[in-house]
Amino acid sequence: MDFDLSEEQTLARDTARKFAREEIAPTVEADEEAHRFRPERVQKMAELGFFGSVIEERFGGTQFGHLAACIMAEEVAKVHASWGLPFNMQMNGPALIIQKYGNDEQKEKYIPQLVAGQWLGCFAITEPNTGSDVASMKTTAAETEGGFLLNGQKTWISQAHVADMGIVYAYTDRDKGAKGMSAFVVDFKTTKGISTMPIEKKFGLYCAPTSEVYFEDAFVPKSAMLGARGDGFKICMTMLDSTRLSCAARAVGVAGACIDASVAYAKERTQFGKPLASFQMIQEELARMVVEHEAARLLVYRAATNKDKHPQQRNTHETSIAKYFAAESAVHCANTAMKILGSYGYSNEYPVGRFLRDSKSFQVVEGTSNIQKIIISRHVLEEA
Ligand SMILES: Cc1cc2nc3c(=O)[nH]c(=O)nc-3n(C[C@H](O)[C@H](O)[C@H](O)COP(=O)(O)OP(=O)(O)OC[C@H]3O[C@@H](n4cnc5c(N)ncnc54)[C@H](O)[C@@H]3O)c2cc1C
């Protein structure tokens, strides 16, 4: 497979790299300390086309493709993983799924605003008792005059308490099982009966906000339904195919940052009269990191390239392979970086503690590593 980047992909990479180095890097430490999210930065990223790669030009997109989107997410996450999340909350999640399943009115109302960063988006699947088993969700959308009443609770929803809109998954017809789930495009700020509470204390991704969301008889009009009644589960899985890929790209970015930090430290730190880099055990650790990092990137680029080449085909299997391997290798690279930096790795003066905290999220979000393994093994077992 040929990964010579096109002119557009090169432009996307260079723009994201410059932005990450010049705009994000200077504030990382202070923002981490304050757990600060910067909505104005989402707008700036939008102005540079970060949220338009897989969006049609008529809605403000660039159509540079999934590979360009992955490369940008990778570049941004390499500097500060928290800032990789808006790729999913704006584009790969809400905007792309509305582009695929929405009616003209929904497309025109939401996609340009999300791509331009004028509105912040989110998507709400997870509940206190519903994680990997999406079909077990409890949130309901009961039909009423002119629309539906949403009731239930979602949790761990990225960007929800700052969001203007969100894709909400709920049961319209529970007796039909997964086929009774529907998806809704919901105005978070103006719909009565929606409240949010930030999850302030979390292990990592300090600058990417996460929230609980409560729906109490929240009325949404019929026009809020995305796709057909009962399509929610299918829409959700389709959305995850795309958000999962972006997550894998972020993992590649963090692994790259771990390698850079380890190499720099191994060259600079002297023990037993020699730099750490001269010890074979350290060299072996570096080599493993590099191989895993390169392999993860190839898997991500392959899945992204095939998405671009065959937009109508689902490539869940390839995406799950990429997500699983990239997440696991990012955690391994972060663990190894911690090891190489010794006590300095344990200090907040160096960023590798953050790399480890942030990398752990990749094993959980958009389907855990076990769920990816289930998807992958099912595919080969069904093919055999
Ligand atoms: C930072 C962050 C941001 C998030 N953002 C969002 C968001 O924007 N929107 C949203 O909807 N959700 C979001 N989530 C939630 C995330 O998608 C879920 O946490 C994830 O799907 C896993 O669900 P769970 O945590 O309930 O784990 P569980 O499903 O309870 O799983 C716990 C453990 O059991 C394992 N397990 C579960 N079932 C099986 C099985 N059948 N076989 C083997 N092992 C199994 C899992 O792999 C895991 O190791 C976010 C989470 C985090 C941490």
What report would you give on this structure?
The protein has 384 residues and is an alpha+beta fold. It has 3 domains: 7-115, Butyryl-Coa Dehydrogenase, subunit A, domain 1, CATH 1.10.540; 123-230, Butyryl-CoA Dehydrogenase, subunit A, domain 2 (Beta Barrel); 233-383, Butyryl-CoA Dehydrogenase, subunit A, domain 3 (Up-down Bundle). Helix content is 52%, strand content 15%. Strands 1-4-5-8 form a 4-stranded mixed sheet. Strands 2-3-7-6 form a 4-stranded antiparallel sheet, with no helix packed on it. A two-stranded antiparallel sheet has the order 9-10. The radius of gyration is 21 Å and the shape is globular. Bound molecules: flavin-adenine dinucleotide (FAD).
Count the E strands.
10
Query: Shape, please?
Result: globular
Largest sheet: 4 strands, mixed
CATH topology of the largest domain: Butyryl-CoA Dehydrogenase, subunit A, domain 3
Annotation field: number of helices: 11
Please give the CATH class of the largest domain.
Mainly Alpha
Rounded Rg: 21 Å
What value does the average pLDDT take?
97
Structural class: alpha+beta
The oligomerization state is single chain
Helix share of residues? 40-55%
Number of domains: 3
Hetero groups bound? flavin-adenine dinucleotide
What is the CATH homology-level superfamily of the largest domain? Butyryl-CoA Dehydrogenase, subunit A, domain 3
Q: Span between N and C termini?
A: 25 Å
Strand content of the residues, in percent? Answer: 5-15%
Kindly report the spatial arrangement of strands forming the biggest sheet.
1-4-5-8
Helix-strand sequence: HHHHHHEEEEEEEEHEEHHHH
The CATH architecture of the largest domain comes to Up-down Bundle
Runs with pLDDT <50, length 5+? none
